[in-house]
Amino acid sequence: MSTPDNTPNQNDSQNRKQSGKTINKKQLKIWFLIPLIVFFGLIVMLYMRLGKPVEIVTNTALERPVPAFELPLLSDTTRTMINDNLPDQPFLINVWGSWCPTCIIEHPFLMELEERGVNIVGVNYKDDIGNALSYLNQRGDPFSMSIQDLPGQFALDLGLTGAPETFVVDGKGIIRQHIIGEINEASWQSRIAPCLIVLNEANKNNDNPDPSQLEEVCK
Question: CA-to-CA distance for 26 and 11, rounded, in angstroms?
Answer without folding.
Answer: 23
